[in-house]
Design brief:
With 219 residues, this protein is of the alpha+beta class. It is 55% helix and 11% strand. It has a four-stranded mixed sheet with strand order 1-2-3-4. Strand 3 and strand 4 form a beta hairpin.
């Protein structure tokens, strides 16, 4: 039964993550390497931990978060499905129990806003963790004069925090945005689908999703 630490230390998986990010770099996408996957892994696990889920389910969310983007090595289009197939083979070879393997594969296969659905707590935690990772340090382009809308929006986010309030049953994504680089409307132009997905994922966990930008409640 592989643990998160075993998955994280596996050299083959490290190569998959590195090569997937190189593919996205060639396409001009934001960073999807170790800073992103480790952050998603940490947040996904923390979400389920804060809500009192069993330790092993928390660990499954961390594993899913760490390997959720390896399908980008194949192609950006359909990367959630190709990543799920890759994860299936990796985890089966490592001896993971079939039911746990299915939970992780299904979560990875459902994390993209194009086709994904929060079908389980692990999937819901992965979705929220992935879609909430908006930050300046993910922008690769160093020439601000050539920023596209994705660069502008990510670069504009100076601070991003995600907090769960169990008493109020809310999960709140709080952003500090420098509007010199990207407006709130820019944010919604490219992230509306992702925020809707976060709302549905939060509902799967019995929570209400809230978005606060520059101390103003937006959702």
């Amino acid at each position: 039964m592989p643990t998160f630490e075993q998955i994280r230390s596996d050299e083959k998986i490290k190569v998959y993550i590195k090569k997937a990010d190189e593919s996205l770099a060639a396409l001009g996408y934001t960073e999807h390497s170790f800073p992103h996957v480790l952050r998603v892994s940490d947040i996904a696990g923390n979400i389920l931990e804060d809500l009192g889920y069993p330790d092993r389910e928390i660990e499954l969310a961390r594993i899913a978060g760490y390997i959720h983007d390896i399908g980008n090595m194949v192609n950006r289009i359909g990367h959630s499905q190709s990543g799920a197939v890759m994860a299936f083979e990796i985890l089966r070879e490592m001896g993971m129990k079939t039911d746990e393997l299915c939970d992780i594969v299904a979560a990875i296969g459902n994390h993209d806003e194009g086709t994904g659905v929060a079908i389980s707590p692990v999937a819901a935690a992965l979705i929220i963790a992935d879609k909430s990772d908006v930050r300046r340090s993910r922008v690769r382009n160093i020439d601000k004069t050539t920023f596209d809308i994705h660069d502008r929006v990510n670069y504009s986010v100076e601070k991003s925090t995600l907090k769960i309030n169990k008493e109020n049953k809310t999960v709140t994504l709080r952003l500090t945005v420098d509007t010199e680089y990207g407006s709130v409307m820019d944010y919604f132009e490219i992230f509306l689908g992702r925020m809707i997905m976060c709302r549905k994922a939060a509902e799967k966990l019995g929570l209400t999703f809230r978005l606060v930008i520059n101390d103003q409640a937006v959702v």
